[in-house]
Design a protein that fits this description.
It contains 3 helices and 2 strands; from the N terminus they run H-H-E-E-H. It is α+β, with helices and mostly antiparallel strands. About 0% of the residues are buried.
Length: about 80
């Protein structure tokens, strides 16, 4: 029997709940929460040199920007691998 014609053993809601609580998703949520706690605990001002200019800003802004840039690069690479 082909997978498309195989009978379903669980209802529609059960499969969604099982996918939502996958170990990988739980780990990613835990990492995201720990990252946010780390970012917002560090609030002092820091000086960052960007090639030529020197910028002074709170450390949490620099950490958050770095995390967002890393997430963007990671999602770009993952999307390129899928194609």
């Amino acid at each position: 029997m082909s997978p498309k014609k195989a009978p379903r053993t669980a209802g529609r809601g059960a499969s969604r709940t099982a996918g939502a609580l996958a170990p990988g998703r739980i780990a990613m949520v835990a990492v995201a929460v720990l990252t946010l706690v780390f970012v917002f605990e560090d609030t002092r001002e820091v000086k960052i040199r960007l090639l030529v200019p020197e910028v002074t800003l709170p450390l949490y802004v620099a950490l958050l920007a770095t995390a967002l840039l890393g997430a963007g690069c990671g999602s770009y690479v993952a999307a390129r691998r899928r194609k």
